[in-house]
Amino acid sequence: MRGRGADWGARGNSRRGFSLVDVLVTVSVISILIGLMLPTVAGIRETTRKVICASNARQIGLGVAMYADEHRGNVPASRFAAKFAGDPASQPENLMMVRVQMAPTGWDGMGVLFEQNYLSAPGVFYCPSHRGGHPYRNYAELWSGQPAEIFANYHFRGSFPNGANYTTQLSRFRPEASLVTDGLKTKWDFNHLVGANVVGADLRVVWIDDRSKTVDGLLATNADDFDAGDKVMDAWNELDAKMRQPGR
Q1: Which of 97, 108, 105, 95 minimizes the C-alpha distance to 147?
Q2: How many C-alpha atoms does 115 have within 13 Å on its Cβ side?
Q3: CB count, 10 Å around CB of 221?
Q4: How many CB atoms lie within 10 A of CB 228?
Q5: What is the pLDDT of residue 19?
Q6: How far apart are CA 116 and CA 75, in angstroms?
Q7: What digits encode the pLDDT tens for the residues 46-99?
Q8: Per-residue b or e along 17-45, where b marks 16 or more CB atoms closer than 10 Å to that residue's CB
Q9: Which of 10, 35, 207, 246 is deepest in the core (most CB within 10 A)?
Q10: In the prediction, which pLDDT does 45 show?
Q11: Residue 8 neighbours by CB distance under 10 Å
Q12: Model's pTM, two decimal places?
């Protein structure tokens, strides 16, 4: 019995540990698995961001509608919105701006919704997928502070062609017209890169796929582009066309 016990102990203590080859193979397999999983994780994260963005856009759209309902049908006024065709004072590229430092009241366009408590959370105006120079953290303290220039991550239509003039009457916007969407000031303000959430004048929220770059390709590459305003208008027209497609 003693001999067998001693022999069993000797065999038990002779178990082979992991070799260097075993460790290298294991590390390689783990690395491959991580590489396969990362795109999936990134995709899930972006899908979540798109849902949050759609919710934000919907709240802004509803805020515009509530404002219009209490202001004789007019959407919030913006000094940047066109008053008539060829209006030299219009700056459609700046309809992402919600507060203008030198203005008497400061709040403009979508910012009026915050000023008048139609929307009380500044975070609603910011997309979690924003890639440009206007993340929420840059403006968080300014929303309740001294007058300062504030940009959001969403673009507001401001006014809509109505014959030779532009109207601010929401009921006169074509139902399928784009009212609010992801930023259009530059390519970097087009938050999701491959598409955008769009709120129609009928308050539908639609995801517009732009992997073909038909909208992104129209936008200015930087904020100093002299033709940025015309490019924004071209982008609005392209979004309108996409909103009119069957099934939207």
Answers
A1: 105
A2: 15
A3: 11
A4: 21
A5: 66
A6: 13
A7: 889 999 999 999 999 999 999 999 999 999 999 999 999 889 999 999 999 999
A8: eeeeeeeeeeeeeeeeeeeeeeeeeeeee
A9: 207
A10: 83
A11: 10
A12: 0.82
Contact 107, 119 (CB under 8 A): no
Q: What is the pLDDT of residues 144-170, one digit of tens each?
A: 888 899 999 999 999 999 888 999 999
User: What pLDDT, in 10s, does the model give residues 87-120?
Assistant: 999 999 999 999 998 766 799 999 999 999 999 9
Q: Which of 67, 169, 69 is nearest to 118 (CA)?
A: 67
Report CA 105 to chain centroid distance, whole Å: 26
Q: Across the chain, what does the average pLDDT equal?
A: 87
Q: Which residues pair with 208 in a beta bridge?
A: 196
- How many CB atoms neighbour CB 78 within 10 A? 26
Which tops the pLDDT comparison, 191 or 13?
191
Which are the contacts of 101, defined by CB distance < 8 A and separation ≥ 6? 147, 148, 149
Domain ranges of the chain: 43-243
Only one residue has tokens 């069993």, namely 8
